[in-house]
Structures are given as structure tokens and as C-alpha cells.
Design a protein that fits this description.
By secondary structure, this protein is mainly alpha-helical. The chain has two helices and two strands, in the order ββαα. The chain has a two-stranded antiparallel sheet with strand order 1-2. A hairpin with a 4-residue loop joins strand 1 and strand 2. The chain starts with a strand and ends in an 8-residue tail after the last helix.
Length: 67
């Protein structure tokens, strides 16, 4: 049984429109398996890398910015 899903302009081939339950479970595990401090450290590292990448791109003449 398939049905057309208008907002994605595609056929729904899942059992009664079901969604994958594994993805939210993996996300929950990723959030819960690391301490709050480790999340903060990862965020700081990501912001530093984004800043460095933006600086390098701008120095090379490639317009780049962070939102």
C-alpha cells in the first residue's frame, strides 16, 4: 500500500506512514552519553574552527561569514 504525500511530492512506502525510531534514539544517546561540560567544550571547539575557517576564506578573497 502506498499513498501520495503532497508536501514532499513523493510516495509514502512506509507501513502506515511510520517513521524510523532509531534516529531519535541515537540522538538521545548522543546527548545523554556526554556530560554538560563536554558538550560545552565541543561547542567551543566548533566555534573556534568556524572562526578560523571564516578568517582563512576571507583572507583568500572568498566572502564568508558566520551567523
Amino acid at each position: 500500500m502506498t499513498s501520495r504525500v503532497e508536501y514532499i511530492d513523493s510516495l509514502d512506502l512506509t507501513i502506515s506512514g511510520s517513521r524510523n525510531g532509531l534516529t531519535p534514539l541515537l540522538m538521545w544517546y548522543a546527548v545523554k552519553s556526554v556530560s554538560f561540560e563536554e558538550h560545552q567544550n565541543r561547542i567551543k571547539l566548533c566555534l573556534e574552527i568556524a572562526s578560523q575557517a571564516t578568517n582563512v576564506l576571507n583572507e583568500l578573497g572568498v566572502p564568508a561569514w558566520r551567523n
